Input
Amino acid sequence: GNRDGCSLSKVVGKGKLKKIFRKYFGGKCVILISDTRKCQGYPKMIRKATAEDLSRIAALFVFNNRINYFPIFKQEEYSFGELQVVSMIDHYFGKGEVLENLYVADECGIVKGFMEIHGTEIRKLYVDPCFQSGGIGKKLIEHAISTFAADHLWALEKNTRAIAFYHRHGFMENGEKELEEGTTEYIAKLIRVEENVQLDEK
Output
């Protein structure tokens, strides 16, 4: 495999790739030209966001918000009306005080996730659904902890998948709750407790 992780076998999966070869190439040796060259000069990294990243960040946020929160809040007017990429850039992500605190997970020049950090609080952490369960969120939260000493965040109580993720990295509910503005749903505060970190998390 390629060190940069950008081969087709990485994307499709080695087992599935073998099946494809057997089905369409009769098991013969096939030379596969991967997209390794595309990745040259684009190391995997967590970096500070720039204005050029805003459309990708906003699109990622909107997509995640509709998938994760519309089933809970069921606010069509907000999720499919007010919540748009351009408006999120204009009214939120593009503001100087927000952009200054945005960081992205960049792999091969593709922004696969992002987070917003203020002091030691993680305000937002999102991974593109297409790349979830691939270690992107782990890299983001570890960067937040090691670089900014992140020690607390707020999460929607019903977003159990996100809360389970935070639990694996040592963030636990401390009993504080607040109503999410304009809704009847609660958000819970999670604080980081070192001994709760699951070191085998991938």
Q: What stands out?
A: The radius of gyration is 19 Å. Residues 54-73 form the longest helix (20 residues).
